[in-house]
Structures are given as structure tokens and as C-alpha cells.
Design goal:
The protein is α+β, with helices and mostly antiparallel strands. It has 10 helices and 9 strands. A 3-stranded antiparallel beta sheet has the order 3-5-6.
């Protein structure tokens, strides 16, 4: 009950902070008992299980996959930082997608908060690493239609070939490659980092094309102006610009001759 209430409150805070309003965690109404059995009264979730959507469609379109992962990593960030808890087994089938109405974006509903464990003082706690790895595997499966080979201990074989062959824009490919890097030590280390990178990518798909192009121009200018500074900063600006332009070309193919 505490987990559900805390996450519900965090979603309300996020709505005002980030200008979005969705409730990933089903609403909790209370508890009671029937014939001596304790019961929890929770919101009924009518959405579709994400694995079923992947099976039906072959793979999800990039924006839908990004939205699902974005909302998932928001919840993981709240769990890891505010509640100091991780999943013992974050299951793909517990991700449900509720389609939006009247043109509104849909939202994720995350089920089963009964299998959690406390985080120790170790910043690279195995439960955190496991949540991040599974979230990365699920994003890869949504984008490619194929789940990377993994176990509770980690990836059973490199995910690079699957990521390389998947149809995704450059910024998304770069992010998924970092999330599922064959060397665990160089993967993104927090749900917060991943959430914010996904947020940028979702905005490239959602914002007006003119605003995305303006963002790309700013990043290109920053890369040029910082050419004498740290190479990693220059590369980061260049990657963001390319990511924005790739998505514009997907959204508005008529812009392609102007961007070539």
C-alpha cells in the first residue's frame, strides 16, 4: 500500500513539474477482508499487455515504444531514489498500455508491486542494475520485435547485432546500445538518466517540427562553437542534432531534401 501511495503522489508532482499528467501506478482504494482473506481494492486496468501488442504488430512504432519506456523509467526512478526499492522480477507482461482517447497519447499502467526488495548503500546495487537491464531489454523488444537473450545474471549474449539490425532512428539506437552495452560497467547507471534521455526523444516526436529543427540547429551551433573543448561534449551535441533531424525525416519526409 505504501508503495502505491508514494508512486501515486510522485506522479502528481511530475504532472506539474514536467507538464504531463498520467498515473502509471493503478489507483489504490483500500483494503479489507472476505472470509478471513485480506483483499486489496485497486483500479481495474483495461489496457493491452505490451508483449501482446508486440506479438500482434511485429514491433511497436518508435514513439509508442519510447513513451512506454519513458513512463517505465520514471516509475523506476521513483522506486530507486525515493523508496529505496527495486523489483525482484520486473516482468514484461506486467506492462500494460492504455490507448488514449480523442487523439490523446496513451499511457502505461504498471502492475504487480508485490515483489520488491530494499536497496543497500551500494550505489551499483544488483537490483538497480537488474531493473535497468530488464527495462533496456523490454525497450529493445518493443523496437525490434525480438527479446535479447538474458537471465537474472545479465545478458547471455551481446545485444549489438539485434540493435544494429532494428529499424530505429540514430538517437534511439545510441541510447539502447548504451543501456545494453556488453560491458555492464559502461551502461547508464540510473533510471533518472535514462528517463531524461527518453524524454528528449519523445519530445522530438511530439513537438512541432519547426521547434525540433530549431533544437537541432542549436545543438549544431553548440558543437561548432565548442570545437576546441572536450570531445565528448562536442559529440553529444552532434548526436542530439542528428537524432532530432532523423526523427524529423521520419515525421515529415517532405523535409528530407532540405536536410540532406
Amino acid at each position: 500500500r505504501g508503495t502505491l501511495n508514494t508512486l501515486g503522489a510522485a506522479a502528481e508532482i511530475a504532472a506539474s513539474e514536467f507538464d504531463f499528467a498520467w498515473r502509471v501506478v493503478p489507483h489504490y482504494y483500500g483494503m479489507g477482508s472476505y472470509n478471513g482473506v485480506e483483499l486489496f481494492a485497486m483500479e481495474y486496468v483495461a489496457g493491452d499487455a505490451v508483449p501482446e501488442l508486440v506479438a500482434q504488430q511485429g514491433r511497436l512504432d518508435e514513439l509508442q515504444a519510447l513513451r512506454i519506456a519513458w513512463q517505465l523509467f520514471f516509475v523506476l526512478d521513483i522506486m530507486h531514489v525515493k523508496q529505496k526499492q527495486t523489483y525482484i522480477d520486473l516482468k514484461f507482461e506486467n506492462l500494460r498500455w492504455v490507448a488514449g482517447e480523442d487523439g490523446a497519447a496513451g499511457q502505461l499502467k504498471l502492475l504487480d508491486f508485490g515483489t520488491l526488495e530494499k536497496i543497500t548503500d551500494d550505489p551499483r546495487h544488483r537490483g538497480v542494475n537488474r531493473d535497468l537491464l530488464l527495462g533496456g531489454c523490454y525497450l529493445c523488444a518493443m523496437l525490434t520485435g525480438e527479446m535479447p537473450d538474458y537471465s537474472a545474471a545479465g545478458l547471455l549474449k551481446p545485444a549489438e547485432p539485434l540493435i544494429r539490425m532494428g529499424a530505429m532512428t540514430s538517437g534511439v539506437r545510441h541510447l539502447v546500445s548504451r543501456m545494453l552495452h556488453r560491458n555492464p560497467a559502461v551502461r547508464l547507471a540510473t533510471a533518472n538518466e535514462i528517463f531524461h534521455e527518453l524524454w528528449v526523444l519523445v519530445n522530438y516526436w511530439d513537438l512541432p517540427v519547426v521547434d525540433v529543427l530549431a533544437s537541432a540547429r542549436r545543438d549544431l551551433a553548440a558543437a561548432e562553437n565548442n570545437a576546441g573543448e572536450a570531445a565528448d561534449q562536442v559529440q553529444a551535441h552532434a548526436r542530439k542534432a542528428r537524432s532530432a533531424l532523423d526523427i524529423v525525416m521520419q515525421r515529415a519526409p517532405e523535409q528530407a531534401p532540405l536536410l540532406a
